[in-house]
Amino acid sequence: MKSCHLFILPNQDIKNEQPSKVFIRDFLPRGSGIVTRRPLVLQLVTSKAEYAEFLHCKGKKFTDFDEVRHEIEAETDRVTGINKGISSIPINLRVYSPHVLNLTLIDLPGITKVPVGDQPPDIEYQIREMIMQFITRENCLILAVTPANTDLANSDALKLAKEVDPQGLRTIGVITKLDLMDEGTDARDVLENKLLPLRRGYVGVVNRSQKDIDGKKDIKAAMLAERKFFLSHPGYRHLADRMGTPHLQKVLNQQLTNHIRDTLPNFRNKLQGQLLSIEHEVEAYKNFKPEDPTRKTKALLQMVQQFAVDFEKRIEGSGDQVDTLELSGGAKINRIFHERFPFEIVKMEFNEKELRREISYAIKNIHGIRTGLFTPDMAFEAIVKKQIVKLKGPSLKSVDLVIQELINTVKKCTKKLANFPRLCEETERIVANHIREREGKTKDQVLLLIDIQVSYINTNHEDFIGFANAQQRSSQVHKKTTIGNQGTNLPPSRQIVIRKGWLTISNIGIMKGGSKGYWFVLTAESLSWYKDDEEKEKKYMLPLDNLKVRDVEKSFMSSKHIFALFNTEQRNVYKDYRFLELACDSQEDVDSWKASLLRAGVYPDKSSTENDENGQAENFSMDPQLERQVETIRNLVDSYMSIINKCIRDLIPKTIMHLMINNVKDFINSELLAQLYSSEDQNTLMEESAEQAQRRDEMLRMYQALKEALVIIGDINTATVSTPAPPPVDDSWIQHSRRSPPPSPTTQRRPTLSAPLARPASGRGPAPAVPSPGPHSGAPPVPFRPGPLPPFPNSSDAFGAPPQVPSRPTRAPPSVPRMKSLRQPRAQTKSSHDDIAKESVHYRLPILGPRTAAFHGLLSDAYKTLEAMQPSSLPKKEPMGKR
Q: Where would I find the Dynamin-type G domain in this sequence (predicted)?
């Protein structure tokens, strides 16, 4: 929950009195001129002990608050120097005391007009920007402090507060120096919020004078004197219960209560969300009893059982929690069985020219010196056995891939055992050793299956075409190829879709300004692509006859993985392109598409060199009979190898499943726990990591704190009452003062100096006219200013820039407070920084103040001169300075 802060916006005349009165101790620097030259962030914390800490003095506690004052002065001088320099770097002070509530105050430098010492020429602008950084925050309250003996309409504090808080919901006016006003005058109308009203009104306070401070008058005595002043003053007696530092504390406390109640609903929802998010994890810690001797045994059994369940779910795919981000171990093994393993078998597919050469050599070698009349069976068996042996490589590779996935699955399942490092390490070691043991037996069985196939060539198989049908099948294949090239319609059985998906044609897009993605549909006879996956607009259909696939090196400028289709007869694949380069987002997609193309009969390209032993290429110009024999055996080998491939593709996954995967599952369920008990001491296995112990304690503390916080919030809702915001007031006087230009508008000037001065109507009745002074009078014409004048060096030209008098005859001007006198106070009784008590949970508050009032005293003298000339035409005891 964002805390509400109190920002104190003082004038330069106001010294550091108010923050001290909040703590009821005198610990802030005092003096003449600019005292607060860096923002002071004062954090008050309720505590039994009473001491202070600075952020820049970590670990050091200050119990003597005179030392606190000296440290503030020293830290200010370290950054700003000793010659009145300023800085926006705050000083952070935290005070612990049983006499305070949790509260944050920020005391800001007072606004100064003229640079002194090391201050830059734009000192006013810099201080203003510094103040605006703090008071623009929506969660702060602004205490706009103004001395009673200055013109309230010229208050810089109210002006800045109005700029950032136009609705007046965060601004509280504070009037100080009420005891220093001239005898017979008071600020009653201002404190009653009748003149220059604020939405939250004004609170009057009385601070210690410099004489009181020099006399060591403590703050408690000052607050008693303040109470006595309001009770004894005839103008404030009826307001005594709404004046003084204690009442200001109540006002701020109520605003804090309102802020907390307004924030509580969202805060409660946030706490409840955090509680629900950790409740599942904390559930395992609630009944944790470290002193229980059976705890480790019970925990070990539960963790081993959970490990077995997790492993089986990842392999079998059962369970209600399905991973939607990546494939599980079982799904990856399925891809190995049905995509990767068939792909590896087809990838080692024999080269056609080399196969025919081997068949030709075998036939000639079997006939020897004789010329054979019949096709020899031994040539067929020799070629078939050689091709069957080649299946050992893909089969053993599939075993290795499955083993790797099993080990990865074990590591993922042991993540839940990470709280017990020794148990996790030992479990991985035992299961991995068992997997390695089963690896040898599984590979032996796989090799045995291959050897069984080599041991006997069953030419009587029902799917084997035999010698009689070999030539006939060869002609049928040739006929099918011719029909496919002609693009005739195929029977529905040949139009079964093998795969669909998005691919990018990369080489065609280069010519047209960029790669394009299409929706591809692969069948047993063709590869078609469409504009989108609705398959309404077909772009092209590519027959698969004589096509092969090969890899394309990945470009350093591209993140795509590319493979290419090409025609083995050196024909164009698509329009004028010899190659059709297709791109995927990952290598897994490339492998999957290759496996699908293999199912459709598109084999990978295997470049081969055809060099004979003498370095010269042989030209196999065979006689017609030998060519016919080679073609026959070629068809026989193709038929028998299709049978063997189908058998191997079916048996190898079954063998791996039985000897490897199922065996590992049974081992984990039945043997793992026993081997864990026998491998190491139980106490050693169940030693908890320091990180886990710390996390458990933190989670339990957080869970308990969240529950207590929700209970406290419920108590606050029932024990506190919020007050509605005061209704809006007429604040046009602040808006008018902000937009007043240096020269007076024409409509507000007097037409002639000889005409009597017409005062604007007020709430007290019409004011009599004031004649213009004669030439002997020393007072210049107040309401008439032809233009801005340079700053006056002394009091003789103090009337060069008097405040303009707006003319609003239709209503009483709210901008004229009824202070009886606005003269400067005597120096020996001048008050110090305003007392502002602030109570609540981290509420921030800046302090603003008015401009100097030197020329107002001279203005009052000028008015008295006019009164002496025509006493009957002027009202008595009118606060001229306020105009």
A: 1-265
- CATH class, domain 501-528+537-608, is mainly beta
pLDDT the model gives residue 4: 62
Burial class (CB within 10 angstroms; exposed 0-12, middle 13-18, buried 19+) of 566: buried
C-alpha distances in angstroms, 563 versus 482, 495, 551, 589, 796?
Answer: 27, 24, 5, 11, 95
CB 47 within 8 A of CB 195: no
Residue with tokens 């706009």: 144
CB 849 within 8 A of CB 34: no
Q: CA angle, 394 as apex, 391 and 397 as ends, to 5°?
A: 140
pTM: 0.47
Helix (H) or strand (E) holding 140: strand 140-147
Domain coordinates of the chain in residue numbers? 1-286+819-852, 305-469+622-687, 501-528+537-608
Q: Under CATH, which number does the domain 1-286+819-852 receive?
A: 3.40.50.300
The DSSP H or E segment spanning 523 is strand 516-523
- Give the E-state strand segments of 568-719 in sequence order: 579-584, 603-604
CA distance 484 to 482: 5
Burial class (CB in 10 A: 0-12, 13-18, 19+), 115: middle
Strand pairing class (547-552; 603-604): parallel
Give per-residue pLDDT as tens, 292-325. Answer: 667 778 888 888 998 999 899 888 887 666 777 7
Specify the DSSP element, H or E, that contains 475: helix 466-486
Report the distance separating Cα 217 and Cα 227, nearest Å: 15
Per-residue pLDDT of 201-238, as tens digits, reads 899 999 888 788 778 788 788 888 889 999 999 889 89
Which two tokens mark 87? 């800085």
Domain 305-469+622-687, second-level architecture? Up-down Bundle (1.20)
Give the whole-angstrom CA distance, residue 637 versus residue 383: 7
Q: Are 876 and 854 in contact (CB under 8 A)?
A: no
d(CA 182, CA 489): 113
Give CA–CA dist 147/822, Å, rounded: 10
CB 348 within 8 A of CB 393: yes
Residue 42: phi and psi, rounded to 5, are -105, 110
Buried-exposed string 343-363: b where 16+ CB fall within 10 A, e elsewhere = bbbbeebbeeeebbbbbbebb
**Order of strands, sheet of 579-584, starting from the edge strand that comes earlier in the sequence:** 538-543, 526-530, 516-523, 497-505, 579-584, 561-567, 547-552, 603-604
Q: Of 460, 383, 450, whose CA–CA distance to 635 is shortest?
A: 383
Residue 663 has pLDDT above 50, yes or no: yes
Q: What would the 3-class secondary structure string for 224-288 be? A: HHHHHHHHHCCCCHHHHHHCCHHHHHHHHHHHHHHHHHHHHHHHHHHHHHHHHHHHHHHHHHHCC
Token reading at 731: 């604040």
For residue 801, the 8-state DSSP code is S
> What whole-number distance in Å separates Cα of residue 416 and Cα of residue 844?
47
- DSSP output for 165-178: -TT-SSEEEEEE-G
Cα distance between residue 271 and residue 38, in whole Å: 36
CB 851 within 8 A of CB 112: no
839 pLDDT more than 50: no
Q: Which residues contact 791 (CB under 8 A, 6 or more apart)?
A: none
Q: Return the closest-CA partner of residue 841 out of 264, 429, 355.
A: 264
Angle at 790 between CA 786 and CA 794, to 5 degrees: 115
The rounded Cα 805 to chain-centroid distance in angstroms is 54
Q: Which amino acid is at 512?
A: K
Looking at residue 536, the DSSP 8-state letter turns out to be -
- At 688-720, the pLDDT tens digits run 777 877 888 888 889 889 988 888 888 877 777
Angstrom distance (rounded) from CA 882 to CA 875? 14
